[in-house]
Amino acid sequence: MTSKFVYMPRFERAIKHLKKRYRNIIADVEKALEIIETDSDKGTVIPNDYAVRKLRVASRDMQRGKSGGYRLL
Predict the structure, then answer these.
(1) H helices within the chain, ranges in order?
(2) In whole angstroms, how far apart are CA 68 and each of 5, 10, 11, 43, 61?
(3) Local structure of 71: helix, strand or coil
(4) Is 63 helix (H, G, I), strand (E, B) or coil?
(5) How many CB atoms within 10 Å of residue 59?
(6) Which residues pair with 44 in a beta bridge?
(7) Residue 71: exposed, middle, or buried by beta-carbon count in 10 A (0-12, 13-18, 19+)?
(8) Phi-psi sector, 17: left (phi>0), alpha (psi -120 to 50), beta
């Protein structure tokens, strides 16, 4: 199964805004996307929503682990 990543305009604006506070956010998100490409079963499937997955991503800037990091859909 191939993955298709779609960046919504709201996501791009949020990344731009968060980049001011969390300098490593782009690297953290890219690393998560690479993990999804290699293992498409990562994350929790949101029921009744066309196989969209929810994934927690650890932030190197916050240093709190996945539960204190970002959420990707």
Answers:
(1) 9-19, 25-38
(2) 23, 21, 19, 16, 11
(3) strand
(4) coil
(5) 18
(6) 54
(7) exposed
(8) alpha
- The residue among 35, 68, 69 whose CA lies nearest residue 53 is 35
Q: Which burial class, exposed, middle or buried, applies to 53 when counting CB atoms under 10 A from its CB (0-12, 13-18, 19+)?
A: middle
d(CA 53, CA 42): 8
pLDDT at 1 over 60: no
Rounded CA separation 31/45 (Å): 20
In the block, which residue shows the tokens 């969390």?
22
Give residue-wise pLDDT tens across range 31-53: 888 888 888 778 888 888 677 78
Write out the H or E segment, with its range, that includes residue 53.
strand 53-57
Residue type, 9: P
The residues spanned by each domain of the chain are 9-72
What is the pTM (predicted TM-score) of this model? 0.71
